[in-house]
Write a structure and sequence with these properties.
The chain has 13 helices and eight strands. By secondary structure, the protein is of the alpha/beta class. The longest helix has 16 residues. The protein is globular, with a radius of gyration of 18 Å.
Length: 321
């Protein structure tokens, strides 16, 4: 495929993009001063129920009888990333919001946290007897959606992955040994960050990769900085070591892959909206029922930059099931 060859030629650029996407920009920066007003994203909705599944915090919202939704935040994120989505769907669907160990002030993650989280999501579905739920995952959460859909093909009703792919962009051509070495270097880089350095890194990340609005970026950074750097580093290593592409053909549920595009960011890398959408489609090639939808203008936290567009895509996806 000519498009894939062109991307391979620009692989160093894409690998840098992948690192930014997963980790943020890890250069020194000044932490923002605490705003006087309350953090708008910290005002979480009160759940109808709160419980744990193997260390994963689960908050259930809504009492409706619609198709269950499982919302899984991304790296270093908590339920605050989904508050708008919960408001949009809790009246018509039971909504289960997950917070993974080590994130948002939760106790540290276990060894091999990705595999543990994968099992916890499957256990949640089984123990709660959720009928064909739809996983809506952001970044790391989207990758978990692909993983669960491979493990339990008949279990899920659908997967919505928001900027999360079966393999980390830029690593798709790496040999196993090279991938493992790269993953370990990234783990060590994140895990050893002191709290003040980690907070500064989160601010740079949110301002350059996370969201479009700088005020929102600073507020979100204060929340993501509550995560445990060592746990974040281990999740990073697990994801960089993961390549789910060989099992994609086993997925039976339809998959919606949402692609953020911001011309001021992507144009600097020489990437058009069509090219980025095509690249994401190529990395998810093998999913039998795949739809790829770009959303612009948006950065990594698409559901915060463009909530109405994302909610509309999810509603249309649910109607088609």
């Amino acid at each position: 495929m000519k498009f894939c060859k062109n991307l391979s030629a620009r692989r160093p650029v894409l690998l840098a993009f992948a690192i930014l996407l997963a980790l943020g920009a890890f250069q020194p920066g000044k932490a923002a001063q605490a705003p006087e007003a309350p953090n708008r994203f910290a005002a979480a909705l009160a759940p109808a129920e709160r419980f744990e599944v193997n260390g994963v915090l689960v908050e259930r919202h809504g009492t409706a009888a619609g198709r269950p939704l499982i919302l899984i935040p991304g790296l270093a994120s908590g339920s605050w990333a989904w508050q708008g989505t919960v408001r949009a769907f809790a009246a018509t669907h039971p909504v289960y919001v997950l917070t993974l160990p080590g994130f948002d002030g939760r106790p540290a993650a276990p060894s091999q946290p990705f595999a543990a989280a994968r099992g916890a999501v499957e256990q949640l579905i089984a123990t709660r007897r959720l009928d064909k739920p739809v996983i809506v995952g952001h970044s790391l959460g989207g990758i978990l959606g692909f993983a669960v859909a491979e493990d339990q093909p008949a279990l899920l009703g659908g997967v919505v992955s928001i900027d999360g792919l079966p393999v980390m962009p830029g690593t798709e051509m790496m040999a196993p040994g090279q991938r493992a070495q790269f993953a370990e270097s990234m783990r060590a880089r994140v895990a050893t960050a002191a709290p003040t350095a980690f907070a500064s890194q989160q601010q740079v990340y949110m301002r350059t990769v996370g969201v479009l609005d700088m005020g929102q970026a600073d507020e979100l950074a204060k929340l993501s900085a509550r995560s445990d750097p060592a746990s974040v580093g281990q999740y990073v290593a697990d994801v960089l070591n993961e390549d789910l592409r060989p099992g994609l053909e086993r997925i039976q549920a339809p998959v919606l892959l949402i692609v953020p595009f911001h011309d001021l960011d992507d144009a600097q890398r020489g990437i058009t909206e069509d090219a980025k959408t095509g690249y994401y489609r190529a990395l998810a090639e093998g999913v039998p029922r795949l739809r790829v939808a770009p959303v612009a203008p948006a950065r990594h936290f698409v559901m915060i930059d463009q909530p109405q567009m994302v909610e509309g895509l999810i509603r249309d996806f649910l109607k088609a099931l």
